[in-house]
Amino acid sequence: xxxxxxxxxxxxxxxxxxxxxxxxxxxxxxxxxxxxxxx
Length: 39
Description:
By secondary structure, the chain is of the alpha+beta class. It has one helix spanning 23-36, and strands at 2-5, 18-21. The chain has one domain.
């Protein structure tokens, strides 16, 4: 499992902004965020 920043801000380490994702889901979310600027 990997820790992901829900809002995409890697400086926002508040526990309410973190969740765990499997590596595949994390890659997909990151790809969507990078392509769209948001989810």
